[in-house]
């Protein structure tokens, strides 16, 4: 006898963060651009053509150094990230760098807000090139800024950053802060028999070597015969027609 398993499903697709206007400009109501915590830098990034030492410590250009940004310092510098140029790939802007007029393809908004360990700002994309790359899946963000570095005196990290001042925000393939700092889109949740599954986390974990419990994703089954690939295909089928074509193709690709 064959027993068929049936599920009661529904898709929760919250209002998207991204909105296109009549000019073809893309507005994002908020996205994280920088986080507190420990970030890694090559030595050459810390000196950048300047003095070969930082706070009395000689810097090896090819060595990786750990820099700590405290939540307090992130909050103190938040205002400086308002109305900054948005560029496609890093290029230092201003008096000591490139002319922003030739590089800018958008801007940050007039609001800067700390949520958890991240700094969020609105974004406005206006350039054809940056919009095309964003559509093709380039969506991580990297903040460029000046700061003062002091030796930490502890083993967990080498330097402490303070007096943070924003210069620009770049759309990049891989940002220093990781994939959590990116241009936000819709949040997709699938509810199967009352169990909410965050599809973003689901597909992120499926792409990794190991799955982890406690994140809301489907990680394991009591039945070893369950074909997880087939289940993912079924999820794709459930999404078909319920989200826009671009978002559906992104999910299927993952």
Briefly characterize the structure.
The protein has seven helices and 15 strands.
How many H/I helices? 7
Judged by helices, strands and strand pairing, the structural class is: alpha+beta
The average pLDDT score comes to 80
Q: How large is the share of residues in beta strands?
A: 25-35%
- Count every beta strand, where a strand is a DSSP E run of 2 or more residues: 15
Q: Enumerate the spans where pLDDT stays under 50 for 5 or more consecutive residues.
A: 1-9
What general outline do the C-alpha atoms trace?
A: globular
Helical amount among residues, as a percent range? 10-25%
Describe the structure.
By secondary structure, the chain is an alpha+beta fold. About 20% of the residues lie in helices and about 35% in strands. The protein has seven helices and 15 strands. It has helices spanning about 45, 70-75, 100-105, 130-135, 200-205, 230-240, 245-254, and strands at about 10-15, 20, 25-35, 35-40, 55, 55-60, 65-70, 85-90, 105-110, 115, 120-125, 140-150, 160-170, 190, 195-200. The strands form four sheets. Strands 2, 3, 9, 10 and 11 form a five-stranded antiparallel β-sheet that branches. Strands 4, 7, 8, 12 and 13 form a five-stranded mixed β-sheet that branches. Strand 2 and strand 3 form a beta hairpin. The radius of gyration is 22 Å and the shape is globular.
